[in-house]
TrEMBL record:
Cross-referenced InterPro entries: HATC_C_dom, IFN-induced_PKR_regulator, RNaseH-like_sf
Organism: Acyrthosiphon pisum (Pea aphid)
Domain HAT C-terminal dimerisation: 343-412
Coiled-coil regions, chain positions: 193-220
Keywords tagged on the record: Coiled coil
Gene Ontology molecular functions: protein dimerization activity
Top-level taxon: Eukaryota
Matching Pfam families: Dimer_Tnp_hAT
Protein name stated in the entry: HAT C-terminal dimerisation domain-containing protein
Length: 434
C-alpha cells in the first residue's frame, strides 16, 4: 500500500480518490482483513474491490477439470507433450503430420499453460487435430531400440486408445469451444463490466441448454467418438462393473453411450454451471444497483438503487434519494424514446448519451460504472516482457532505463529515429572523465 501511495506522489498526483480496485485472488491483495483492498477500504469507504474476471473464469475451468476422468485426460495430454518435446521425436511427429494430415497448418503440440486459458483452449484443439499423427508416431517409437522411449511410447499409446480418455477429450473440447469466446473477450482492454457479465451469463445459459438437451448433445459427441475409434483403431467399451464400487462410477447399463454420458458429460456440465453461478456472484452483486441505470423499468430495481445511493451518498456529492429517483424516472423516459436497434449497449455509450446538466446524479453514477475494471490482463502482459528484458547482464540498470526498454519492447509500432536518440543524448552532460 505504501508503494501505491509513493507511486502516485512520484507521478505528481497529490489528491487521491479511490473508487475501484481490481486484483487477482491472492490473499495479499484481496484479503478481507490485511489485504490491500481492505486497507484501501478503511480510508476510502466507497472503494469497490473487483476480483479479476479472467482469474475467476480460470478458477471456474480449473475447478470443473478436477473431475477425475477430466483431470486424468489433461494429465495424459501434458505427458504426451513432454514426451514429444525433443528434437528427434518432434521430427518424427512432423513427418507423420505431413503424411497423415497434409493440409494441417500445425506441426507441433502446444503446452498446456497453467494460467493462460486461451492458450490451453488452443492446445486442446491442436492435440485433437493432430491425434492421428500422434498415434502413428507413437506406434513407430514402440519399435525403437531405446527401451526408455519404446516403453514410454507403449504406455502413452494405450492411454490414447482408451475410451474414457477419448470421451473426456471430446467433452473438454465441447465445453472449451463455448468458454473460449468469453475467455478471448475478457482479454480486450475496452470491455466494461456490464458487457463481461452479459457474456458470462450467455455462457451459463448455453451450458444449461446443453445440460437440458444432454442426450442430443452427447449423441453427437458419441458419433464423433465412433468415427475416431475407426481412425485410431480402438474399441469402444465400458469399464468392468461390479456390485460394489467406491473409486469410480458404477452405473448399471449395457450402453456405452449412456454410461459415459452419465459418468463424464453430465457431472462436468453440472460442475461447470455451479462454478459459474458461484464465482461470478460477486460481480453480479456489484452491478445490481447500477443495473437500474440501463433498464427501462425502475420499480423492480427500486430497492437496489436505494442501497446504491446510500453507499455513495456521502462521498460522491449525490443529491437526496428522492431527487435521484425522480431524476432516474426522467432518464428512463429518455431511454424509452430510443428504439431497441439504436439503444446503447455499453456503459460508455450511455455516458455519452447522458446530459450532465440535466441528469447530474445519473451522470456521476454512470462515470463510476465506466471505470469498474474487468480484468488485470492488460497490466500483467508486461510480466513476460520484463522476463525477457531484465536478464543477468542487465540486473544493475535503473528503473528509468528498464521502463524505457520495456516501452520499446511492448510498443513496437512506435518508431524512434536515430535523430531523436541523438537529440536526447545532446541534452545530457558529457560523461567522459577527460
Amino acid at each position: 500500500m505504501t508503494i501505491i501511495y509513493y507511486y502516485f506522489r512520484f507521478r505528481g498526483i497529490s489528491r487521491i480518490t479511490f473508487k475501484v480496485n481490481c486484483y487477482d485472488g491472492a490473499a495479499a491483495m484481496s484479503g478481507r482483513f490485511n489485504g490491500v483492498q481492505s486497507i484501501i477500504k478503511q480510508q476510502y469507504k466507497t472503494a469497490v474491490y473487483v476480483h479479476c474476471s479472467a482469474y475467476v473464469l480460470n478458477l471456474v475451468i480449473c475447478s470443473s477439470c478436477e473431475i477425475s476422468c477430466i483431470r486424468n485426460a489433461m494429465g495424459v495430454i501434458e505427458s504426451i507433450y513432454n514426451f514429444m518435446n525433443t528434437p528427434k521425436r518432434q521430427c518424427v511427429l512432423q513427418s507423420e503430420v505431413r503424411n497423415k494430415i497434409p493440409n494441417s497448418k500445425k506441426e507441433k503440440l502446444m503446452k498446456l499453460c497453467a494460467t493462460r486459458w486461451v492458450e490451453k483452449h488452443e492446445s486442446i484443439r491442436t492435440f485433437i487435430d493432430l491425434q492421428e499423427a500422434i498415434v502413428s508416431s507413437l506406434e513407430m517409437m514402440t519399435e525403437w531400440v531405446d527401451k526408455e522411449t519404446s516403453s514410454k511410447a507403449t504406455q502413452l499409446l494405450l492411454s490414447l486408445r482408451d475410451t474414457t480418455f477419448n470421451v473426456s477429450l471430446l467433452v473438454i473440447d465441447e465445453i472449451f469451444k463455448h468458454s473460449y469466446v468469453l475467455c478471448k473477450a475478457l482479454q480486450r482492454d475496452n470491455i466494461d463490466l456490464i458487457e463481461a457479465m452479459n457474456l458470462a451469463e450467455d455462457l451459463t445459459k448455453e451450458v444449461k441448454r446443453m445440460r437440458q438437451n444432454s442426450d442430443e448433445v452427447f449423441s453427437n459427441i458419441f458419433m464423433t467418438l465412433e468415427e475416431k475409434s475407426k481412425l485410431l483403431n480402438f474399441d469402444i467399451h465400458i469399464p468392468r462393473i461390479c456390485k460394489r464400487q467406491t473409486n469410480r462410477y458404477n452405473i448399471s447399463t449395457d450402453s456405452a453411450e449412456e454410461y459415459y454420458r452419465i459418468s463424464i458429460f453430465t457431472p462436468f456440465l453440472d460442475y461447470f454451471i455451479d462454478q459459474m453461478n458461484t464465482r461470478f456472484i460477486e460481480h453480479q452483486t456489484i452491478l445490481k444497483g447500477f443495473q437500474s441505470l440501463f433498464d427501462n423499468d425502475l420499480d423492480k430495481d427500486r430497492n437496489d438503487i436505494l442501497e446504491l445511493l446510500h453507499f455513495y451518498k456521502e462521498s460522491d456529492d449525490l443529491s437526496d434519494s428522492d431527487i435521484v429517483i425522480s431524476e432516474l424516472k426522467m432518464w428512463k423516459n429518455v431511454l424509452n424514446r430510443i428504439e431497441n436497434e439504436q439503444k446503447p449497449k455499453r456503459a460508455i455509450e450511455f455516458l455519452k448519451l447522458c446530459d450532465e446538466d440535466l441528469f447530474p446524479n445519473v451522470y456521476k453514477l454512470l462515470k463510476i460504472v465506466c471505470i469498474l475494471p474487468v480484468t488485470t490482463c492488460t497490466s500483467e502482459r508486461s510480466f513476460s516482457s520484463l522476463r525477457r528484458l531484465k536478464t543477468y547482464l542487465r540486473s544493475t540498470m535503473t528503473e528509468n532505463r528498464l521502463n524505457g526498454l520495456a516501452m520499446l519492447s511492448i510498443h513496437r509500432e512506435e518508431l524512434i529515429t536515430p535523430e531523436e536518440v541523438i537529440e536526447q543524448l545532446i541534452k545530457k552532460n558529457r560523461r567522459l572523465a577527460f
